[in-house]
Each structure stands twice: as structure tokens, then as C-alpha cells.
Amino acid sequence: MKRDYTLSEEQEQIRQLARDFAENELRPRAAEWDRKAEFHGEILPLMAELGFFGMLLPEEYDGLGLGMLDYLVALEQIAWGDASVAITMSVHNSLPTQMILKYGNEEQKKKWLPPMARGELLGAFSLSEAGSGSDAASLQAKAERDGDGWVLNGEKMWVTNGGEAELLLVMLRTDSAGERRGARGIGAFIIPTDTPGYEVGKKEDKTGLRSSETVSVAFNDCRVGPEALLGDPDKGFVYALSSLEGGRLGVGAQALGIAEAAFDHTVKYAGERRQFGRAIKDFQGLAFKIADMSTRIEASRGLLYRAARAWDAGRGDMRLSSMTKLYASETAVWVTSQAINIFGGYGFMKEYPVEKLFRDAKVTEIYEGTSEIQRTVITRTLYQEQVKD
Ligand SMILES: Cc1cc2nc3c(=O)[nH]c(=O)nc-3n(C[C@H](O)[C@H](O)[C@H](O)COP(=O)(O)OP(=O)(O)OC[C@H]3O[C@@H](n4cnc5c(N)ncnc54)[C@H](O)[C@@H]3O)c2cc1C
């Protein structure tokens, strides 16, 4: 791995630590986890020891107090090792922990953040439902007042880490009395997953990210106290959207790591595989493809690091997050698809590593907002800015 001159010495060290971990601990296990669709729980204690679950949390809550770029540089390398492990880390670091940090009261922060930072509690985030994905504000699962607490009912879909997490950050409709539909009237709740009435449902059988758990969850008269509510009962959707801005950078880093892994395998293979008496890299058609793969990966990295630096400077920007996620995810799908072509028939075989990378890449175009939704955000914010000017 060559030094990246845009990173500080400390960031280089973080990158190297994560790369060594990915190379030694993830790469040797990833294919088997994928084949068995088995959750990679065995590796999480080691990741916790290395601090990977508290990178963005302040030291006062037992986190490492690092910045967004430091975190993304590590996440990119974890994704290079195994994209399923990367999404476990990404959801935990970007969504539930950040929502509690930003919108929780001091009691909630002191209770939940230190064990989450130490990796003793795994977090999950639940916005989607069967009928509401891109149009997340139309969600129906509800939280109704019950004395000074709440009673929760309804079903949520596609919860990453859901079956394994000890804590769920869930968005529920709180306006059932007033029937004010839409983005207002949604609350965010912190739910320990051992609360009676909380049930984990079906585990999805997925195309890719097969060692990441994706489940449905149901609330059946699940009663929680007032301490479960995060901030304002009407603003959970706003909190979720603002956290997804950082989450999308996490997906960008994940996509970049997948693309890099496919590229590394491709460069090696194209240098070794011979047809018509020469290495296939020497055919101009393939040489051009390799050049394009490399260029798109560097462009993804440029966007990602720029967005992360803007974030660290307090100038995080929803448009830049969307552009990063959009470009990096489409690059990952394109690069992994080209990698299969360059591997020829071997690329289509499970014995070789690139077909898994292709399967893992695809979902980066879908979750935390599809490519169409990212394009919508980019254009909408662009016009909003023009109106302001
Ligand atoms: C593996 C996996 C893990 C996930 N993990 C989580 C999780 O942890 N927590 C969570 O809350 N959710 C999670 N999700 C859900 C994910 O965020 C949604 O799948 C995603 O937001 C898309 O919603 P949908 O699947 O309902 O598609 P739909 O919203 O039904 O979209 C279908 C198609 O219509 C297009 N479309 C929709 N609206 C528009 C529009 N306005 N303009 C143009 N095109 C549009 C979409 O781009 C897409 O092509 C996960 C999903 C997957 C696959």
C-alpha cells in the first residue's frame, strides 16, 4: 500500500492499522462467512479492542475523539477486507451513536455512549418499513403516550445489525392523535433489544453482504419509559436525516474499499494471466479499462476525503455527502463488474474473489438513499442555493 500524501502521519497510521487488521483478520475469513451467510460476530471483540466502535465519540464517553476523515480512512480499509464487517461498523458509528451524541440529553449520553464506544453494545438504526423506503417520512409504526412513557406497535424492515444489536435507534410515528402525516410527528427512540414486546423477525437471504445481518423487527405493545425518547417527539425524522448525511459518507468509504479490493485483484491477475503469448494487461482494450478503473477510484477518494475534511471543519454539506455516496457506489459497481470481465470465466466462479465484491458492491447504490434519491438531493440543494443567492 503506497503512502497517500494527502493524509497526515496520524491518519497514515490509522490506515495502516486498519489495513493490517483487514489483511490478517478479515480477508482469510470473508469468503467462508459469505458462503455460510454467517454473522461475523467472532471478530467484533477484536475490533472493539482496537477502538473501531468509538472512533467518532469524544473521549469523555470512552471514544477515541477522532474526526470524520480519520474514521473513513479506517472504514475504507475494513471494507477492503470485508464489506459486511464494514457495514456493521459503519451503521454503529455513523447512525445510533451519532444521533445519541447530537440529540440525547446528558443522562442518555452517559448511559449509552461509553458501552457503545467500547464495543460492548452494538447499535442498529431503523427507519425503513415495508411500505416506506425512499419515502421514509410515510412510516406507520407508532409510539403512543402511555402515562409518562410510550407504548410501541408496528413493524420495521431491513434493520442492519438488527438481530445482533443490543440497542435500536428507531423512528416511530408519534402523531397518531393529530394525524399530521409526513415528516413532522415522528419521534426517535432508544430501545434496548431485550425490552419485552420487541421481537426480531425474518433474517433476509441477501445477494451480497451475506455476513451482515439484515432483519425485520416488530413492536407488540412494547412499553418504554420517557427516557427512551430522544429529544423532541416531533423531530425524529429531522434527526435521522441529519445523521444519514454522515452515514452516506460511511457508505462512500465502504464502496471505495470494495472497488479498491477489486482493482488490486485485477491488476495482479491481468499481469499474470497470459493469452496469445502475452499478459492480458498488454492488450490495449484491457489496459484502458484498468486505467479507467484506477481513475474512477481516485476520483471517488478525492470526493470522499474532501467531504470528510469539510465535515471536520464544521462545514459538512448534504450535497457533497450525496455526491460522494452516488459517485463512489456507482464506481464500485462499475469497477467490480469490469473486474469480472477481466477475470473472464474465472471471474464468474465463487473460487475467485471478484464475484463476491460485485455482489457486495450493488447494495451501496441502494441503502441509505438510492442513487435516484442522491441525484434528487443534489439537484434540489443546488436550486435551493440559487434561490438563496
Ligand atoms: C442490505 C440492506 C440493508 C439495509 N439496512 C437498513 C437499516 O439498517 N435501516 C433502515 O432503516 N433501512 C435499511 N435498509 C433499507 C434501505 O434504506 C431502503 O431499501 C432504501 O432506502 C430504498 O427503499 P425501498 O427499498 O423501499 O425502495 P423504494 O423507495 O420503493 O424505491 C424503488 C425504486 O424507486 C426509485 N424511487 C423512489 N422514489 C423516487 C423518487 N422520488 N425519484 C426517483 N426515483 C425514486 C428508487 O430509487 C428505486 O429505484 C436496508 C436495505 C438493504 C437492501
TrEMBL record:
The keyword Oxidoreductase applies. Keywords: FAD, Flavoprotein, Oxidoreductase. Belongs to the acyl-CoA dehydrogenase family. It is an enzyme of class 1 (oxidoreductase). This is Cyclohex-1-ene-1-carbonyl-CoA dehydrogenase. InterPro entries: Acyl-CoA_Oxase/DH_mid-dom, Acyl-CoA_Oxase/DH_mid-dom_sf, AcylCo_DH-like_C, AcylCo_DH/oxidase_C, AcylCoA_DH/ox_N, AcylCoA_DH/ox_N_sf, AcylCoA_DH/oxidase_NM_dom_sf. Its cofactor is FAD. It comes from Candidatus Kutchimonas denitrificans. Pfam families: Acyl-CoA_dh_1, Acyl-CoA_dh_M, Acyl-CoA_dh_N. Gene3D superfamilies: Acyl-CoA dehydrogenase/oxidase, N-terminal domain (1.10.540.10), Butyryl-CoA Dehydrogenase, subunit A, domain 2 (2.40.110.10), Butyryl-CoA Dehydrogenase, subunit A, domain 3 (1.20.140.10). Transmembrane segments: none annotated. Residues 124-222 form the Acyl-CoA oxidase/dehydrogenase middle domain. One of its GO terms (molecular function) is flavin adenine dinucleotide binding. Residues 234-382 form the Acyl-CoA dehydrogenase/oxidase C-terminal domain. Its EC number is 1.3.8.10. Residues 8-120 form the Acyl-CoA dehydrogenase/oxidase N-terminal domain.
